[in-house]
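Exercise 7.
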Amino acid sequence: INSDLFVVENKKGQWGILSLQNEKPLVEFGKYRYLWGFDDGLCLFDVETPNTSTFSNRGILNSRGEEIVRPYTYTNIYSFYGKRQKTIRVELDNKVIRINKRILPPF
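Solution. The predicted structure, written as tokens, is:
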């Protein structure tokens, strides 16, 4: 659990990640269009994609702010924040599957 990491929206409507251990943001404000909170050391993010209504622009960050699942890897990555599940629901080629959080790269 990452109790020292906080997903924050600033006054400009930009999202970033702050850590109690660093003065600099872990993820700069505005780098991602939207950030969900951390769940089991993972954070779902959304990148800006002009003129699209798909969810393929989502990816997953680890607790170091590294992209461990890049945008456009899956057709959709469903929100897992606050659900305390061992798996993440994703969609690929019109099939919904679940991936185990523990098989993702280290976080």
